[in-house]
Design goal:
The protein is mostly beta strands. It is 4% helix and 41% strand. A hairpin with a 2-residue loop joins strand 1 and strand 2.
């Protein structure tokens, strides 16, 4: 155990892979917040926020054992990569060469392919900083993995602070040109076990525009203003109310599964979104260096699985707010670049700050 003031990092066994490899859970805890993450896929299995009555409210969906994470089609709590979101037809044009990535979403590439970053064992090391305690996960994705060029060395760090915040830091270097786009795929439900869906949650997104998609959820390449549409979350709006709107883009995705173009992105950390559960009084504020945020309202959760605490994972049981670069950016020169080269690494930071009234 590694201790610092009122914060601590504790490692414990979480389960064993079929090949006998042990998977550990790292619990990062202080008086305000507790985060648990495992060495399989850097998956965040729980985030518990302290309430005034001394109880801790678990605000993300997750499992309390390893087996469901070994086939995790909803990517609960995982780091999605080497490229989060979709690349059309798995085709990666890069510096005059077309690379064929594996296709795992029909004819398209999604969240890194058949075995993306979420389906590998990572090496973990505890971290101590002046104002935070955490854990760093590392692994090297070899050249050719899921079709990607270049060997990519990835580092993911989770930090918890006494202000009930979680910071995620991502860094990737490569020995050859490649593309990188990482995100954290947690499903938030700020009501805890007492709230079956997030339809009553109130959401704000700092975005004046979003990226429309085609029938296969691939961006068309255009951007659209959110003004006078159900995509306008510049002021707080209830998720369930917005889902009732008759809008072509909502029909195509069965709900929200769209990238929002953040208004103040540009390399520094800026506010991106706020989510609130009126029933619990818990609020999440998200700030990021990323230019985009993917809103996914969990419409494809089918109720076949049960999370920790006995929650049935049905439609809208959680909402994803994935800070990232834009989907399918290799095919759209107008989108921010996701290319990583030797000497030009990838770096990103996102912070979740929780408040409970």
């Amino acid at each position: 155990m590694l201790q610092k003031r009122s914060a601590m990092v504790v490692a414990r066994p979480f389960g064993t892979l079929p090949d006998g490899t042990s998977i550990d859970a790292y619990v990062l805890r202080n008086d305000a917040i507790e985060l648990e993450a495992i060495t399989w896929g850097c998956i965040i299995t729980a985030v518990r926020v302290a309430r005034r009555n001394g109880e801790r409210l678990n605000v993300v969906l997750g499992y309390d054992r390893l087996e469901p994470y070994l086939s995790n089609p909803a990517y609960l709590g995982a780091v999605a990569g080497r490229y989060a979101n979709r690349i059309a037809y798995g085709r990666l044009p890069l510096e005059g060469t077309d690379h064929q990535l594996t296709c795992n979403d029909g004819v398209h590439h999604l969240h890194g392919g058949i075995r993306g970053f979420d389906q590998h064992v990572w090496t973990a090391s505890p971290v101590e900083r002046a104002d935070a305690s955490g854990v760093t996960f590392t692994r090297t994705s070899p050249a050719g993995e899921e079709g990607y060029p270049g060997a990519a060395h990835a580092r993911v760090t989770y930090l918890v602070r006494p202000d009930a915040s979680v910071t995620m830091e991502y860094a990737v270097t490569s020995d050859a040109p490649t593309v990188v786009n990482l995100t954290q795929h947690s499903y938030f439900n700020l009501g805890g076990r007492g709230e079956a869906t997030v339809l009553g949650h109130e959401l704000t997104i700092a975005a004046d525009s979003f990226l429309p998609v085609d029938a296969q959820l691939i961006p068309t390449g255009a951007s659209a203003e959110v003004d006078r549409t159900p995509f306008d979350f510049r002021r707080s709006a209830q998720i369930g109310e917005r889902l009732q709107h008759d809008h072509e883009q909502l029909r195509l995705a069965g709900g929200f599964d769209h990238n929002f173009v953040l208004s103040h992105a540009g390399g520094s950390v800026n506010p991106a979104a706020t989510l609130r559960s009126p029933s619990s009084g818990c609020t999440l504020e998200i700030a990021t260096t990323e230019p985009g945020l993917q809103l996914y309202t969990g419409q494809q959760l089918d109720g076949r699985r049960v999370s920790a605490g006995g929650r049935i994972l049905g439609a809208h049981a959680g909402v994803c707010l994935e800070t990232q670069h834009f989907p399918d950016s290799p095919h759209h020169a107008q989108f921010p670049s996701t290319v990583v080269r030797p000497g030009l690494p990838y770096g990103s930071s996102t912070t979740w700050t929780f408040k409970v009234t």
